[in-house]
Amino acid sequence: MALTGRAGLVAAVGIVVVLFAPQPGAALAGVCLLLAAGIVVDLVFAGAVRPLRLHRSGDTLVRLGQEATVELVVENPGGRRVRGLLRDAWPPSAGARPRVAPLDVPAGERRKIAVTLAPLRRGDRASVAVTVRSLGPLGLAARQGDHRAPWTVRVLPPFLSRKHLPSRLARLRELDGQHPALVRGQGTEFDSLREYVVGDDVRSIDWRATARRHDVVVRTWRPERDRRVLIVLDTGRTSAGRVGAAPVPMAGAEAGGGGLFVQPDPRPAPGWPRLDWSMDAALLLAALAARAGDQVDFLAYDRAVRAWVSGESRTELLSSLVNVMAPIEAELVEADAQGMVAAILSRAKRRCLVVLLTDLNPAAMDEGLIPVLPQLSSRHLLLVAGVSDPSVAAMTARRETAEEVYDAAAAEQAQLGRRRITARLRRHGVEVVDAPPEDIAPALADAYLALKAAGRL
Amino acid sequence: MSVVTPQAPAGQSHPASPTVRSAWRGSRLIVLLGALVVLVSVLGVLLGSEGTPERRLDPDDTSMSGSRALAELLRDRGVTVDRVDSVAAAAAKGAAGDRLLLVTDTAYVDEYDLAEIPGDRLIVGDVFGLAALAPGVRVEPGGARPRSREPGCGLPAATVAGSAYLGGIVLRGPSGSTGCYPADDGHTLVTFPSASGVITVVGDGDFMTNQRLAEDGNAALALNLIGTGKAVTWLVRPATPPVLDLPGERGQSMYELMPGSVRWAVYMAIIALGVTAFWRGRRLGPVVTEKLPVIVRASETVEGRGRLYRARRARERAADSLRAGTIDRLTPRLGLASGAGRHEIVPALADRTGQDPQQVGAALYGPPPADDAGLVGLAGYLDFMERQISEL
Predict the structure, then answer these.
(1) Which of A334, B155, B344, B362 is the most buried (most CB within 10 A)?
(2) Residue B220, exposed/middle/buried by CB under 10 A (0-12, 13-18, 19+)?
(3) How far apart, in whole angstroms, are the C-alpha atoms of residue B203 and residue B220?
(4) How far is A207 from chain B (nearest CA, A)?
(5) Distance, in angstroms, between A260 CA and closest chain B CA?
(6) Does ipTM surpass 0.85 in this model?
C-alpha cells in the first residue's frame, strides 16, 4: 500500500474545512472518514499487482562505456487496468535509466518498457527487483508490490587498445613476408624454396639449391609459429592503484566532487586502476599473438588463481578472455609471487613466453618476484610489463616552490627505485616494458613483435 | 575451460512481496509478543498509578525519603502538623497563631512572601532563597558529606539528642547564633533569634526521613527541633507545579481567546502531516546495495613521502634524490658507463655545459643545502644543466 500526494492534499484542505466549520469536531471526523473511504475505494479498485507477469529480453553482454538495453514486458492477466509507476531496481553502478517509468497496462494486455544501462564498472550487474505501484481510480492510494524478474548483464572490459591492432597486424605481416612491399621477410624459421624474382634480396639466394637446379632459387622465411604465450595478470594490491586519465567513465574515476561542507579535491581525477590498463594491454597482446599463430593462455593470480583460460581456439580466444576478465577486481592483499610462479610452472610444461603484467614496485618486487625469478627465467622467457604513473613523472618536473621540490625529490626517489628494479630484472635476462597507461598496450605489442622478429620465442 | 557466461533466464518472474496471509504467518510471533508487551505495560501503568511518586520530606509520604514517621511521632505527642504546599496556605495558618514554619522546599514559592510569615522557622536543606529566609546566614563553599556527627555545642536540643546524621551545606551564622554539628569551617546546624522568632537552619534533611529516623539521635534531634509545643506548618513541594497563566485584558488567557475550532484544526494538521509523511516515506522498491571497489591513487605513497620530507625538512635526503635522478639521466647522455663516478661525470658535464667544474661538482656532490631556498636553487640548477645537455 502507498498513499499519493493527492491524499496529503485532501488532508491539508481538511485543515481549512475544520477551521471554518461550525462544528469542528464533526468536521474533523467527516474529513477523516471521507479520506479513509477514498483510500479504501482506491485500494479495492486498483489493478492487482501480484498477478502481473514480467518477461525480460535484451542484452546480456556490454562493453564498459557502451549502453545496453534490457526490455521488460509487463503482462496484466487481471481484470482491471494497472496504471501507475514501475521501478526496475538495478545496482547504482549499472546506471539504469529511467529510474522510475510510468506504467499503463489495460486488462489482458501487455506493455513493453525499455531500460537503458550505462554501466560504470566491469562485472556482473543483476536486477534486484521490479516494483509496481498501481494507482486507484481516485488517485489517493495505490497498491504496491515487488516482483523478482532476474536478469544479469555482464560488463566486459572495453578493449580500447584494439585501435592499435591494425598497425601491429601490418607489422606482423611484414615479418611474415606477406606484406605487399617487396622486402625480405624477417622471419627466422625456414619456410620453403621458390624461384628468384626481381626485387628479392640477393642475400636470401640459396646457392646449393641453385646449383642443383637451373634456376636461381631463394629461401623464404617466416616467423616462428605455434609458440606458446602465457599472459599472467597480477591482481594483488598494487594493481588497485589508479593511474592516468579514464578514457571511458568508470565509478570512482572522476575527481572527488565537493559537497556542501566538503572542499572539492584539487588533485586530478584518480583515473583507472592499473588492473584495467593491464587488461587492455593483455587483450591487445592476445589478439595479436592469436593472429600470429601462437597459442595464448591466460592466468590471473594474487594469492589464488582468479582466472585461467587455456586451449581456446583463435576465434574464441578474445571473447573467452573478456568474459573471464569481466568480474576480476583487484584484491587488497599482497600478491603471492611464489605461488604465482608455482602456478605458472605447473601449467606451462613447454617453454613459453610468460608475460607478467604487474607493477614495477621496488618494495613488492624485492620481496616477491626477485627471489623466485631464477626458477621461472631458467625454463621460460619472461616479459614483465608495468604501468607507470604519469602523475609521478609530472611531480618530478614541478620544482617552483620548496614544497614542490620536496615532492619532486620523493618522485625522483620512486623513479630511481623503478629504474633500479628494471635494471635488476634485465640482468636476470627478463624483458621489461615500463610505459605510461595510454602507451602500455602498444608498447607491450611492440615488445612481443620484437621478440618474434628476433626469433626468441 | 568452460566459459561461464551470464545466465539469461527464460524471463519468468514471480511476485516477491508477501501476501497478507504470509506476512501474518511470518511476523505473528513478533506481533503477539509486541501486543503482550503493550498489554503488560498498560496494565502496569493502570494498576501502579495508585502508588504515588516519592515526595522527599513530605509528612504524608511513607517511602524511604518521606517523613510520615516523624509526623506521626509529633502527632502522638500532641503536636498539630499541618501540611501545606503554597505560601497562601502557610500564611493563612500562620495568621491563626504562633506556629513553627517548617520549610523543606521553596522551588515554587516566593521566598520574600514566605519570610513575611511571623513565628519560629526551621529551614531544612539547601533551599532556594536562604538569604531571605534566614538573614545573616552564610553558606560556605564546598559542603560536607552527610554522616553521623557529634553535637559539639551547648544547644540543649542537640546535646540531649547526641550524634545525628547531618551534613549537606556548611553554614556560618550571624553574631549571636549557636552553631552545632561542626563540619570543616562551619556548622551544619545554626540557630539564632530574630525579630519574628527563632530561626534554625539545618544543612541536610536526611535525618528526618523514614529511612534515617531510627538511627543515632536523629529522631530525638528532630523532635527537639520541631516538637517545641507549637503547632507546625509543614511546607512541602506541591504535587503539580502551579500553572503560570499570563492573563490578558479582562483576565482571559490566550487559550480562552482562541476560537474552539483551532484545536481541532491542529488535530487535523497532525493527521495531514501523518498522511504526507506516509506518502513521502513509502519507498518504491528496495534499497539496492553494492560492494564498491576501493579508490586509491597509485601516486599516494609518493605524495606521502613528499609530505614526510617536507614535515621533517629532510633537505639532505631530498637533495640526494634530486642529484641521483639527474646523474642517472645525464650519464648515458654524456656517453659514460652507468657506473661512472664523480671524477668522470663532473669534468664531462662542465665541458659540455661550459659551467665551472667547481660549481658543477658542488651541485652534484656538494654538501646538502642549508635551507629551503638553497634546495629550490639546487633543483633549479640541476634542471638548468639537464636542459643544457638535452638542447645540445
Answers:
(1) B155
(2) middle
(3) 17
(4) 43
(5) 22
(6) no
Q: Which chain A residue lies closest to B319 (C-alpha atoms)?
A: A409
Sign for the pseudo-dihedral over CA of B89, B92, B93, B95: positive
Q: What share of chain B in percent tops pLDDT 70?
A: 92
- Nearest-by-CA chain B residue for A18: B265
Please report, for chain B, the start and end positions of each structural domain, with discontinuous segments joined by +.
68-235, 310-391
Q: Do A152 and B6 touch (CB under 8 A)?
A: yes
Nearest CB to A11; choose among B1, B9, B272: B272
- Interchain pair A14, B268: CB under 8 A: yes
Q: Tell me the average pLDDT across A77-102.
A: 93
Look up cell 552553631; give the residue: B179
pLDDT at residue B6 tops 60: no
- Cα B231 to Cα B78: distance, rounded to the nearest angstrom: 9
How close A173 gets to chain B, by Cα (Å)? 31
pLDDT digits (tens, 9 = 90+) for A52-81: 999 999 999 999 999 999 999 999 998 899
**Chains A, B: CB pairs < 8 Å:** 263
Per-residue pLDDT tens for A201-229?
A: 788 788 888 888 888 888 776 667 788 99
Q: How confident is the model at residue A299 (pLDDT cuts 50, 70, 90)?
A: very high
Q: For chain A, list the domains and their CATH numbers.
A: 1-156 (2.60.40.10), 192-218 (no CATH), 228-453 (3.40.50)
Mind listing the pLDDT tens digit for each residue in A133-187?
999 999 999 999 999 999 999 999 999 999 999 999 998 888 776 544 334 445 5
Contact B292 A251 (CB under 8 A): yes
Chain-chain contact of B321 with A416 (C-beta, under 8 angstroms): yes
- CB proximity list for B313: less than 8 A, separation 6 or greater: B372
Q: Using an 8 Å CB-CB cutoff, list chain A residues near B375.
A: 402, 405-406
Residues A319 and B125: their CA atoms lie apart, in Å, by: 89
Question: With b meaning 16 or more CB within 10 Å and e meaning fewer, what string describes A145-176?
Answer: bbbebbbebbbbbbbbbeebbeebbebbbbbb
